[in-house]
Specification:
The structure holds 2 protein chains of 2 kinds. Chain A is mostly helical. Helix content of chain A is 73%, strand content 0%. Chain A is built from 6 helices and no strands. In chain A, helix 1 runs antiparallel to helix 5, helix 3 packs antiparallel against helix 6 and helix 5 packs antiparallel against helix 6. By secondary structure, chain B is mostly helical. Chain B has one domain. Helices cover 70% and strands 0% of the residues of chain B. In chain B, helix 6 runs antiparallel to helix 7. The longest helix of chain B has 30 residues. The mean pLDDT of chain B is 91. The chains are: A mainly alpha, B mainly alpha. Chains A and B meet through helix 1 and helix 5 of A and helix 9 and helix 10 of B.
C-alpha cells in the first residue's frame, strides 16, 4: 500500500483541503485493509449461522413457514430501506470528505446516525409487538433464530455507532481528518447493512 | 562483561543450550512456549482424555448422566488431575499476553485489567469444571439426581460463562487499535472484536437444553470453537513475531527482515 508520505492537507482548486492519508486510486481497497479482514471473517461467521439456519429450516420446513407468516414483510422492507439509505448517506460522507467538503460530510454522517437510530427503534418496536403476541425467543425454533440473528445484528449496529463516532471525531478535528479512517468506519457500516440484507432475505422473504 | 559466543552450528541441543544461556529474549520464549504447550495440552486433556469437549448433550436424563460419569470415570479423574498440575501455567501465559500490551504505546491499565480478568476467568474457564467433574467421577454410585446437578453445574460453569472473556477481548482490541508501536497489525484488533462477539453468542446456552443454541449446539459451541481456534492460532503466531521483532526499546517495533523484503518487492524499492 502506498501512502502519501508526510502529506498534509493538499490544496485544491476550490481552496478546500481533502482529508489526509492514502490516495484512493492507489489503494487496493477503501479504508484500512485490516478492516476488510474483519469483514471477511465476519462474513465467514455469519455464513456459518445462515448455513445452520437453512439446514434447520429444511428439516422443519412446515414449522418455519408457519412461524415466518407471523412476521410483517412490510416492517422488514422498511428496515431494509432505512439501512440502505443510511449506507447511501455514509457513502456520500466519504465522497464529501474526499472533496474536502467537511460540513457536508458531517451532515451526511449525522443522517447516517439518524437512519441507524430509526432502524434500532423500529427493531425494538417489532420485537415488543412480537413478544406481546406471544412469540418469544423460546416459542419455537424459527423465532429462536429470528431473535438471535436480529439481536446479533442489532449488537453489530450498536458497535457501528462507535465507528460513526470515530468518523465524526476525525471530521470535526481539522488536525486529524484521516481519509483512511473515515473510509474504514464507512466500510464497517456498509458491512452491517450488507449483513442485514441477507438476514432480511432469510427471515422475511425466503419461502 | 562476558563475551557472547556465536550461535553454535550443528546439534539442536547445543543451540538450545546457547539460547538458554545467552539469548536476551529467553524469558519471552519461555512464555511463548508455555502458551503453545499449554494450549496443546488443554486440547489433549479436554478433548481426548477427559472427553468433556465437545460437550455432551444438556438434555440427558439423570440415569444417562450417571452412565456418562461411569463411562468417563478414569478419563475425568486422570485428565483433570493433569489439568490441575498444569493449570498454574496460566499465570505465565497471562503474563506473556499482558507483556504484549506493556510493549504498546497505550496505558499500562490495559495490561493490568487484562491480567485481572484472565486470572479470574481461569476459575470458570477451567478449574470449576475440573473440580465438579472429578467430584462426580469420584463416586459414580451417587444418586443420579445429584450427579445430574453436578453435570449441569460443570458444563454451565464452563460453556455458559464465556462472557467473562468478552471484556478481555475488548481490552486487547482497544489496546491494539490505539497502539502506535505497531506491536500487532490492526486487523488483529478487529479479530478481537469478532472473538468478543462470539462470546455473546454463548449466552442462550443458559436457556436451551437442546438445539443449536444449547451448550453443545452448532451455534453456541461448534462455530464459536472454530472462531476461538483460529483466534488462538493467530495470536500465537503474532506473539512469536513480536518476540522476533522485540528490541526492548519503547518506540515502534522494527519489522522482520522477511517483511522488509516483501515490502521492497511490493513497493519496488530496496531499503
Amino acid at each position: 500500500m502506498t501512502t502519501v508520505a508526510g502529506a498534509g492537507p493538499r490544496e485544491t482548486g476550490t481552496g478546500r483541503q481533502p482529508a489526509t492519508g492514502t490516495i484512493p486510486h492507489e489503494r487496493p481497497v477503501p479504508g484500512q485493509p485490516d478492516m476488510w479482514i474483519f469483514v471477511l471473517f465476519e462474513a465467514f461467521v455469519f455464513t456459518s449461522y445462515f448455513t445452520v439456519y437453512v439446514i434447520r429450516r429444511t428439516q422443519n420446513a412446515d414449522l418455519f413457514l408457519q412461524s415466518q407468516g407471523q412476521l410483517d414483510l412490510r416492517v422488514g422492507i422498511f428496515n431494509t430501506l432505512v439501512l440502505l439509505v443510511s449506507s447511501w448517506c455514509i457513502a456520500r460522507c466519504v465522497q464529501a470528505a474526499r472533496d474536502g467538503e467537511f460540513a457536508a460530510a458531517l451532515n451526511n454522517i449525522y443522517l447516517t446516525m439518524l437512519f441507524g437510530l430509526v432502524f434500532l427503534v423500529s427493531k425494538v418496536l417489532e420485537w415488543t409487538a412480537k413478544i406481546e403476541h406471544g412469540f418469544s425467543f423460546t416459542s419455537d425454533e424459527f423465532f429462536s433464530f429470528y431473535y438471535f440473528l436480529t439481536a446479533i445484528h442489532f449488537l453489530h449496529l450498536l458497535i457501528g455507532f462507535v465507528f460513526l463516532g470515530v468518523a465524526v471525531h476525525q471530521i470535526r478535528t481539522p488536525a486529524r481528518r484521516s481519509q483512511e479512517l473515515i473510509e474504514t468506519c464507512a466500510t464497517y457500516w456498509h458491512t452491517i447493512d450488507f449483513l442485514w440484507v441477507l438476514i432480511f432475505a432469510l427471515l422475511y422473504v425466503m419461502r | 562483561m562476558e563475551t557472547v559466543p556465536p550461535v553454535p552450528s550443528g546439534s539442536r541441543l547445543r543451540k538450545i543450550a546457547w539460547h538458554w544461556r545467552y539469548d536476551e529474549k529467553r524469558e519471552l520464549w519461555i512464555g511463548w512456549w508455555t502458551l503453545v504447550v499449554f494450549y496443546n495440552l488443554y486440547g489433549l486433556l479436554f478433548f481426548v482424555i477427559a472427553r468433556t469437549q465437545p460437550p455432551p448433550e444438556p438434555s440427558l436424563p439423570p440415569s444417562e448422566i450417571a452412565q456418562w460419569f461411569a463411562d468417563h470415570h478414569y478419563g475425568l479423574l486422570y485428565g483433570y488431575a493433569l489439568v490441575f498440575i498444569v493449570g498454574g501455567a496460566t499465570a505465565i501465559m497471562n503474563a506473556t499476553l499482558a507483556y504484549t500490551m506493556r510493549r504498546m504505546s497505550v496505558s499500562r491499565a490495559f495490561a493490568y485489567s487484562y491480567l485481572l480478568i484472565y486470572a479470574l476467568a481461569t476459575l470458570p474457564g477451567m478449574l470449576i469444571m475440573g473440580v465438579v467433574c472429578t467430584v462426580g467421577a469420584m463416586r459414580p454410585d451417587r444418586d443420579p439426581e445429584l450427579l445430574s446437578w453436578l453435570y449441569d453445574f460443570a458444563f454451565l460453569s464452563f460453556e455458559g460463562t464465556m462472557g467473562v472473556f468478552l471484556i478481555g477481548s475488548l481490552v486487547w482490541m482497544l489496546a491494539v487499535l490505539l497502539d502506535e508501536n505497531r506491536v500487532f497489525p490492526k486487523w488483529f484488533g478487529y479479530l478481537n472484536l469478532c472473538n468478543a462477539l462470539t462470546e455473546v453468542v454463548v449466552a442462550p446456552a443458559w436457556i436451551f437444553k437442546r438445539g443449536v443454541f444449547a451448550w453443545d449446539g452448532e451455534i453456541a459451541w461448534w462455530i464459536n470453537m472454530a472462531v476461538f481456534v483460529t483466534y488462538t492460532a493467530v495470536f500465537l503466531t503474532l506473539i512469536r513475531n513480536l518476540i522476533l521483532r522485540e528490541d526492548f526499546g519503547t518506540g515502534p517495533l522494527p519489522d522482520l527482515e522477511s517483511d522488509r523484503a516483501i515490502d521492497a518487492i511490493t513497493l519496488g524499492t530496496a531499503r
